[in-house]
UniProtKB/TrEMBL annotation:
GO terms for molecular function: nucleic acid binding. This is Transposase Tc1-like domain-containing protein. InterPro entries: Homeodomain-like_sf (IPR009057), RNaseH_sf (IPR036397). It comes from Gymnopus androsaceus JB14. SUPFAM superfamilies: Homeodomain-like. The lineage of its organism: Eukaryota, Fungi, Dikarya, Basidiomycota, Agaricomycotina.
């Protein structure tokens, strides 16, 4: 049997009905929530003062961020370039880029375990390489 997670507006409707003087059974019928669930929602509201769901325990699965492989020297050069060009009026610059689209990359998704603030740390990234037998070059300018 699957668990249904009721939305906050629905739970707020239930709590509002109870606070306006309706019985739990009547409020549950109005909000279209089973009576047992309504009792649990009311107990949680009385204990916490809120109907919102708490964050779940455990770490949610994340798909790796695909980034080009950069050596430490390349990262330092990019940072220096960004510092040197900090004051440029970027709305007057034409941006262009080219990209190979690999048509036979069958690796699938790779999941990593990380916290929210570790998103772009090297040990949480899977580098990508431009090596494929079937690829298409795409170029564009803005």
């Amino acid at each position: 049997m699957t668990r249904i997670q009721h939305s906050s507006p629905k739970k707020n409707c239930l709590i509002g009905s109870i606070q306006s003087g309706k019985t739990i059974a009547d409020a549950a019928e109005i909000a279209e929530i089973p009576y047992g669930t309504a009792k649990k929602i009311l107990a949680k509201y009385c204990a916490t003062g809120s109907t919102s769901n708490c964050p779940r325990s455990g770490r949610p699965s994340k798909v790796d961020d695909r980034v080009p492989y950069l050596k430490k020297e390349q990262k330092m050069k990019r940072l220096e370039w960004a510092k040197q060009n900090r004051g440029i009026k970027w709305d007057r610059v034409v941006w262009s880029d080219e990209c190979y689209v690999h048509l036979d990359d069958l690796r699938g998704r790779i999941y990593v375990t990380r916290t929210a603030d570790e998103e772009y740390e090297d040990n949480c990234l899977i580098p990508t390489f431009k090596q494929s037998s079937v690829r298409v070059m795409v170029w564009d300018a803005l």
